[in-house]
């Protein structure tokens, strides 16, 4: 016999037994934002994710749906579940709204919970506990996460823990659902040991969240359709990056620190240094200027740790074009470069004031050169492969 308190007196409803399916007419919930709560026969309280056009929760705490009161072929299956077996999801109630059906999710340790079928995957298992997190660092990363809106993993205790298959991977998820997809705030454990806590949209990581890999490399920031997108911080064993992302790649302004302690601050494009930026190496050598596809290219200046420096044009990480190079003795060359070598017309000025004007080929003087001393006296000399011949 079905308890009479199951139905509210103010509603128009009827119960029809037909092929062990109970059809209930109850009024719709509308846009209510309250999460309906259901108590199963084991007194396990579960919050169901609110959604639009769900049926209104017409049960009160004094009207508990006791599965044992329904005589159907499912009774033995439920009893076997209570003994600790695992069974597939079984249909128990069908609402005549045509869209929303509830199911009994049967799990280990005899826990049977009434949930909306439209919220959960077609085949899943409800668990009592989340997977064991063995590493203390992983637990710290998980427990310390808080979204910009104030969500924390610890607040998910009232949400069901569901295990299901997706793309041949067994996932464990605790959080909110919408139309059989993860949607809202939730915690997901992946088969490879990774953990994600944050927001979901249409079953994809979307919004703000933290991904923790098995080796504790982690990303905290914004996501879009499953990829890093927006501002975020990536921390790994060989790299630190804080800045903007687009479609899973560094894009825009950011700060990157490598394992070799080199530090770059500037702009990125499709994962590579691109635009203006400054990179400082562990030995205090510095490049400041333009980048293209991760390389020095365009206008820039480089300072070596011996005091020498170059200001001018670059291509493919090399001095290329017009520039000025000053060595540690304060001698200065101003002219044309090709692949890090003096090449073309140039002028070399020694620190004592003597000036040489000539032509360089692959870093060596070649042809006529004019030398002007500080006194104003000038002489003409000829060179071949850097050697004076006349």
TrEMBL record:
Keywords: Repeat
Highest taxon, organism lineage: Eukaryota
Pfam families the UniProt entry points to: MORN (PF02493)
This protein's name: MORN repeat protein
């Amino acid at each position: 016999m079905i308890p009479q308190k199951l139905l509210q007196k103010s509603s128009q409803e009827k119960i029809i037994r037909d092929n062990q399916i109970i059809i209930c007419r109850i009024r719709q919930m509308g846009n209510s934002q309250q999460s309906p709560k259901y108590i199963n026969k084991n007194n396990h309280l579960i919050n169901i994710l609110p959604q639009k056009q769900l049926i209104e929760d017409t049960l009160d705490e004094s009207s508990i749906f006791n599965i044992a009161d329904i005589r159907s072929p499912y009774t033995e299956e439920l009893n076997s579940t209570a003994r600790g077996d695992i069974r597939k999801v079984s249909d128990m109630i069908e609402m005549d709204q045509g869209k929303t059906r509830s199911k009994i999710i049967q799990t280990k340790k005899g826990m049977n919970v009434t949930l909306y079928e439209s919220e959960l995957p077609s085949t899943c298992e409800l668990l009592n506990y989340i997977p064991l997190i063995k590493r203390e660092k992983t637990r710290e990363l998980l427990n310390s996460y808080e979204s910009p809106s104030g969500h924390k993993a610890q607040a998910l205790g009232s949400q069901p823990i569901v295990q299901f298959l997706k793309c041949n991977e067994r996932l464990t998820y605790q959080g909110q659902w919408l139309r059989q997809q993860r949607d809202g705030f939730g915690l997901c454990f992946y088969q490879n040991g990774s953990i994600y806590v944050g927001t979901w949209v249409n079953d994809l990581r979307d919004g703000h969240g933290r991904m923790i890999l098995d080796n504790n490399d982690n990303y905290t920031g914004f996501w879009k359709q499953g990829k890093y997108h927006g501002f975020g911080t990536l921390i790994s064993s060989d790299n630190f990056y804080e800045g903007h992302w687009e479609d899973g790649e560094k894009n825009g302004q950011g700060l990157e620190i490598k394992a070799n302690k080199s530090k770059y601050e500037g702009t990125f494009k499709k994962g590579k240094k691109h635009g203006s930026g400054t990179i400082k190496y562990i030995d205090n050598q510095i490049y400041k200027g333009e980048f293209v596809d991760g390389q020095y290219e365009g206008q820039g200046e480089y300072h070596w740790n011996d005091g020498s420096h170059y200001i001018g044009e670059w291509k493919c990480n090399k001095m290329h074009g017009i520039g000025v190079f000053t060595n540690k003795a304060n001698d200065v060359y101003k002219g044309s470069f090709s692949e890090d070598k003096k090449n073309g017309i140039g002028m070399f000025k020694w620190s004592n004031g003597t000036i040489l004007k000539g032509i360089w080929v692959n870093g060596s003087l070649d042809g006529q050169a004019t030398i002007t001393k500080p006194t104003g006296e000038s002489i003409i000399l000829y060179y071949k492969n850097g050697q004076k011949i006349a």
